[in-house]
Amino acid sequence: xxxxxxxxxxxxxxxxxxxxxxxxxxxxxxxxxxxxxxxxxxxxxxxxxxxxxxxxxxxxxxxxxxxxxxxxxxxxxxxxxxxxxxxxxxxxxxxxxxxxxxxxxxxxxxxxxxxxxxxxxxxxxxxxxxxxxxxxxxxxxxxxxxxxxxxxxxxxxxxxxxxxxxxxxxxxxxxxxxxxxxxxxxxxxxxxxxxxxxxxxxxxxxxxxxxxxxxxxxxxxxxxxxxxxxxxxxxxxxxxxxxxxxxxxxxxxxxxxxxxxxxxxxxxxxxxxxxxxxxxxxxxxxxxxxxxxxx
Length: 295
What we know:
Elements (H helix, E strand, L loop, with lengths): L2 H18 L2 E8 L10 E4 L2 E4 L5 E5 L5 E7 L6 E10 L2 E6 L5 E4 L26 E3 L6 E3 L7 E3 L7 E2 L12 E10 L2 E11 L5 E10 L5 E12 L2 E9 L4 E10 L1 E3 L5 E4 L6 E9 L5 E5 L3
Parallel strand pairs: 1-8, 12-16
Antiparallel strand pairs: 1-4, 2-3, 2-5, 5-6, 6-7, 9-10, 11-13, 13-14, 14-15, 15-16, 16-17, 17-18, 18-21, 19-20, 21-22
């Protein structure tokens, strides 16, 4: 038999197979963006394929008049499409029952579970230690975002933060974590944690207590804790009681010695820790009023 006859027979066999095979083909797109979805799992019985970069898939099927294809992709609502089989002479064609060749998947709505820190009265810094971390070698602090929490953009409301002598407060581009929300002394309160840049762009971690009226408008702000390592090592501890009394202890420790011109001349290894205390009372009008400590 000549090579020419063999080639003709091979072409005929390929054509016959292509015309008679049972196969589902189609495309999968994002329902909102109308863009092709890659990596969608398409399953039929025990067979599975995945869509390519163009959203295209092809999967072999049994010779049934009707069948179902299942579509799944993480982050999208799964879908099931019925298909039908049509015959035109020897040509077998499988199409979606609605006559199209495209499936549109809808993204699954993401619902963020609102999680607030659980605590018992009184409230102390222990409740918020998981929101920051200190590098013991450099002394630098970094902000941590535990699972279930998120950063919220700051809205400049013009409220001045009390007990913030260094001015390391939130800027317009600062984002914060809502660490706790509670009702204290008849007032709605929120504790937020955020980072700002201090001297030489070193990170400052602040824990701040805000008060709000019934409409959610911020009334006052009190800096509970501020942690940083510059020329001094600085941090605070605090105690918040359910009756609205807030006690804040401020701790600072010098790291260097200075000459008369203010230049650093050496390091201090055993410098004493200087501590001062202020006490505030949350009033029914939502204002934090100092009742003890230096002005």
